[in-house]
# Entry
Amino acid sequence: MDAKVTKDLPHVGNGATVDPGSRAARLGDLSRRIPPPRIADVWLFPPLPQVEDSSEFFLFTSILDDGGRALYSARMAPANGTPSHQVVVEHGRAPANRVPGLVAGLQKRLGQPAAVRHIPIEGDGARWEALVEQSQEATGSVDPDGQDR
# Structure
């Protein structure tokens, strides 16, 4: 059977289409690459002001069979000046207790420690769904840990 490539816009489940570069569409893409029960943490980084064509990017970890974590980044790659598709890269693997230090080091190098948002998922499908749902809402949403934003 040949693979079929389509150009359909992503759907949010209620028949509405979403921008392929939106956080909701990007999280949906991630969940197709790595099952949410294997996602441990997500960090949301704002666009970098010193980088042209920068968009929000994500760091996230997946839970490995040995309890360690694989660390990934996801960013929108520009084409003709417009972000057109998401690029996901695995950067390495580390023990779970080393990941916060790695992320803190990245934040320090970027100079934006207060702007980064961390969402612990720990393989909990309800937390993942809350993050996706929140990304679809405009305002007044609730974080996956149940706190108002």
